[in-house]
Amino acid sequence: xxxxxxxxxxxxxxxxxxxxxxxxxxxxxxxxxxxxxxxxxxxxxxxxxxxxxxxxxxxxxxxxxxxxxxxxxxxxxxxxxxxxxxxxxxxxxxxxxxxxxxxxxxxxxxxxxxxxxxxxxxxxxxxxxxxxxxxxxxxxxxxxxxxxxxxxxxxxxxxxxxxxxxxxxxxxxxxxxxxxxxxxxxxxxxxxxxxxxxxxxxxxxxxxxxxxxxxxxxxxxxxxxxxxxxxxxxxxxxxxxxxxxxxxxxxxxxxxxxxxxxxxxxxxxxxxxxxxxxxxxxxxxxxxxxxxxxxxxxxxxxxxxxxxxxxxxxxxxxxxxxxxxxxxxxxxxxxxxxxxxxxxxxxxxxxxxxxxxxxxxxxxxxxxxxxxxxxxxxxxxxxxxxxxxxxxxxxxxxxxxxxxxxxxxxxxxxxxxxxxxxxxxxxxxxxxxxxxxxxxxxxxxxxxxxxxxxxxxxxxxxxxxxxxxxxxxxxxxxxxxxxxxxxxxxxxxxxxxxxxxxxxxxxxxxxxxxxxxxxxxxxxxxxxxxxxxxxxxxxxxxxxxxxxxxxxxxxxxxxxxxxxxxxxxxxxxxxxxxxxxxxxxxxxxxxxxxxxxxxxxxxxxxxxxxxxxxxxxxxxxxxxxxxxxxxxxxxxxxxxxxxxxxxxxxxxxxxxxxxxxxxxxxxxxxxxxx
Length: 674
Prior knowledge:
Layout: E1 7-9, H1 16-35, H2 39-55, H3 61-76, E2 80-84, E3 87-91, H4 99-118, H5 121-131, E4 134-136, E5 139-141, H6 150-160, H7 168-175, E6 178-182, H8 197-205, E7 219-226, E8 234-241, H9 248-254, H10 258-267, H11 271-286, H12 291-295, H13 301-305, H14 309-329, H15 346-352, H16 355-379, H17 385-392, H18 395-416, E9 417-425, H19 434-442, H20 445-455, H21 461-467, E10 479-483, E11 497-499, E12 510-512, E13 514-519, H22 529-541, H23 557-568, H24 573-576, E14 583-589, H25 594-599, H26 614-633, H27 637-644
Parallel strand pairs: 9-10
Antiparallel strand pairs: 1-3, 2-3, 4-5, 6-7, 7-8, 8-9, 10-14, 11-12, 13-14
Helix pairs in contact: 1-2, 1-3, 2-3, 3-22, 6-7, 6-27, 7-26, 11-16, 11-17, 11-18, 14-16, 15-21, 16-18, 19-26, 20-26, 22-23
């Protein structure tokens, strides 16, 4: 491996004592990396370092703590640490060609954080409360009541194998009959146990390899349950969340990545596309609250129709000044006023007039008015394909097209696209490819229908704050995206294809998980909560520009705070925020006119299968899963042996039980009194 793969870490530590302490901690980690690199050894080095820093009274101890914890997490994630001539150097993990070894490496990384979360007292109390027996509807129940006994299931599946040439469909449907259950409210309860459905979902989420974290924005969680068994045990869990804004592989596939879209405009310009540019830009300008900007003489109504470079410059300057005022005066609580506190549009007008949104509005207007000048000059009030082709050949024309496309994407990405942020099976259904079933269920028309109902009247927070009035966009879900946990080997999403005809669609259409490529993302998931907290504290103690965790400031306040802290430490944030592992990117298109609908060129989505018969479609998906996957899967004795080992008697060996990270007396699965 060439020597230039090493990166020097020289954190900004004013005191010589802290510099020496950082180097000594690096030496301890380097020794661990050379000899054993176990979780216990790294944790021992971490604990000793934290204890030493906590005991010191130097003014730069917070910077030392943050820098040392960052390096510790790098070692945990497989980075190599070395010290040469008092210089600390790190190197990312070497690429792994063995898929099994790479999966094992990633799994180890994720389990470190997952297990640390499970050791938290609050999580321990939650798990114990779920496993504790309680009286419900005349019997004793607990979370164990929602775990299917593998012995009983395996016995039934062995019997069903005798029907595989005749009558298999009926035999399997009596053994496994999946359906969807949505968590529609915080207090919604399971009818069989009385447990809150959200708690049931959360409990099984803790069995995942990676730690459970909440996702900002829209979230819709669901359970896949089995009505063929007592208490309708949980087969799998899933969640749809607000999508990641920028994924090159997904955006190129859709056709709304800037360069992909410009290629389309240049090679196949049409009058419809030219008109779409004008209409989208007009709508964008009309959706911006301007009353205060007009009152203060920043612009006039005439400037909106016939903009000039002078008004664009004034708006840009106003945006900068308002942003400075926001960072100087903003308090998070001032931006968390309840919607019901003010009548009618007044709530959104107050939001629009805050320094934050005044800055955003002025900047957006300067951008849109500049694009309006360009389009007016190019089209002269009459957009045509020929004029669009000429415009797209120029640098300023391409820039205007990109800005309009960015606005069109922003209007649709949060309401028509969702990420499958959680998707997987609960034991003993894992061995039966229950993960594929859950993934198929996530694409059911029933999910689309529920998503539309859930967000039908939702006011867009950002758009409404920009407009000074409520903006409600049609929540028609048309695209699902997700990534694999691992970047190598097979995935539960591979080869998933549902014939549309089985769900009431056309014979030539399918709903499939498309593999789009591999992406290496940025984020903070590779760092422990302790490290993130130390970095955030460093930012808050500094005189640097504040990140206020205010909705509307920008994506991921935590990511921005961590990046700012790394920059304060003079550490290479761009490199250290990379996950340094690839993930496979998947997408599921639910409509036929995906590209045009997602930029607003098409007004109505053309769904592959009807969405009004959602429950019937879910039943059909379950039947297709039994036919395509389960039928063949149960021919393996090894598979049924794996199912059988998940028992509901003591000693508990059921894989759906969250692994305890400290010794505790086991609760019986079922009470003798029930």
